[in-house]
Amino acid sequence: MGNACCAGGIAQLFRGQAQHSEGRRQGSVLPTSGALVQLSGHEPSSAACLLESYDISVELLGSGSFGVIRRATCRWTGSARALKTVDKGQLPDFALEDLAKELRIQGDCLHPNIVRIYGSFEDEEQFHIALEACEGGDVRDFMFAQKVLCESAVGFVMWQVLTAVQYLHEVKHVAHRDLKLENLLLAFGHVPLEDNLVKITDFGMATTFEPGVRNLSMICGTAEYLAPEVPLGRYDEKCDLWSCGAILFELLSGRLPFDAGSQEETMLMARVCPVPLDRVSASKEAKAVLRSLCQKDPRSRASAEQALQSAWLGQYRPDAGGPAAEESGGRHVEDRPVPSEAVASKGPCGEAACGPAAEAGQAAVLQRLAVAGSGATDYADADSASPAVSSDSGWEALSCSGRSGSFSSPRESVREPA
Predict the structure, then answer these.
(1) If pLDDT is split at 50, 70 and 90, which confidence band does 246 have?
(2) DSSP label at 169?
(3) Residue 236, domain CATH
(4) 202 among the known binding-site residues?
(5) Residues 143 and 214 reside in one and the same domain
């Protein structure tokens, strides 16, 4: 598990002295722009843009080996954000490359059921990533707090998850490769599951793929959710649908289909043992979807589109009512222009599509990350470029959900070189 940063270590993350005439902004733990490094090639620097765009709270949402998460507020809209701050000095070169790839993939995804990245910034010692804040924690915690989930609540969750997976696979040609309950966040706190908005997070294992080709080879993911073909080192995006099946199994029954004493035993059971559908008490329609997702042969496994067309999931399409319906509108979301928070409020920098200067700053951060790593610029080909690393030991240990404390997952992700 990743180590939690101590308070003293966190205080040392920012060393500059504020030189701006306004001094430190109230409620901010960062110095103003005079103490930050201006990136070459454009003005303003992405670090200065961060300070113009956000009020950053002293409130600590989480910590990991390589950085912390703080609550931030967009100055132009008042919207809450989760600001991940990653210490450059603590990151090995391969982790910098992984972070660049993760930012590139997740930042390109615009879907109501995927945690959005609003910007990436840099100062002398840290990278800062502004993400959508999710106030309801993760679905696993919600499930254990409720103890029992009704089938309709499960249906609403799965409809949203599979809609996002369909978008990733069909629009973006991205395989997530680490779908699990801990990586499903709830947008709203104290809102019933049927009315909430589920968002996929943690794209640390994600990669792009070529449709119709089984050319993924890295053994990665979380053993209890890992498709049987992944440990064999030749698979495609259908691995995500098996993970969706494991999620559905867990939501309906309260336990995982395969969970042995070790990761190796769990992965072996998934390959050689039948899926124990008799453990699940659910309607025959729900079981039919579960069975279609838990096919061991990926060629027989349902796609996200096929699962969404089932009679069971069709009834949970959010056509009206509730926060989830208001944001997604029951539509399949393609890429579309996203309103700029800065433009809407005439802010100087803002988030996401906030103008050429900010876009150049974000591009510079990605370029620096790539150069600091292996120098790879083709992220689609970086599938197996990194050495083995446990996902909860660094960047991936930092979650953007609104929980306090260390954010290590109880079910650790695995990652091995191809």
Answers:
(1) very high
(2) I
(3) 1.10.510.10
(4) yes
(5) yes
- The residue annotated as part of the active site, out of 123, 138, 178, 240, is 178
**Residues 58 and 165 grouped into a single domain:** no
Compute the average pLDDT of residues 21-46: 32
pLDDT of residue 396: 32
pLDDT for 230 beyond 50 = yes
> Is residue 100 a contact partner of residue 373, using CB atoms and an 8 Å limit?
yes
| 417 within some domain | no
- Domain's final residue, options 299, 315, 331: 315
Q: What is the pLDDT of residue 233?
A: 96
Q: How confident is the model at residue 178 (pLDDT cuts 50, 70, 90)?
A: very high
Q: Is 350 exposed, middle or buried (0-12, 13-18, 19+ CB in 10 A)?
A: buried
Domain containing 275: what range? 137-315
Q: What's the pLDDT score for residue 417?
A: 53
Using DSSP's 3-state secondary structure scheme, residue 118 falls into strand
- State how many domains the chain has: 2
Is the sign of the CA dihedral 299, 304, 310, 313 positive or negative? positive
Please tell me which residue, 136 or 65, carries the higher pLDDT value. Answer: 136
| DSSP 8-state secondary structure symbol assigned to residue 286 | H
DSSP 19: -
pLDDT on residue 147: 86
Instruction: With 0.90 as the threshold, say if the pTM is over it.
Output: no
Give Cβ neighbours of residue 257 (< 8 Å, ≥ 6 apart): 245, 246, 249, 250, 270, 275, 276, 279, 294
Q: Is 178 a catalytic residue?
A: yes
H or E segment at 38?
Answer: none
Please enumerate in sequence order all residues whose Cβ is within 8 A of that of 347, keeping only pairs 6 or more positions apart, or say none. Answer: 52, 53, 75, 76, 341, 354
The answer to whether 183 is annotated as binding is: yes
pLDDT at 416: 67
Residue that finishes a domain, picked among 91, 112, 132: 132
The reply to whether 383 falls in a domain is no
Mean pLDDT score of the chain: 74
Residue 348 sits at the vertex; the CA angle it makes with 346 and 354, to the nearest 5 degrees, is 85
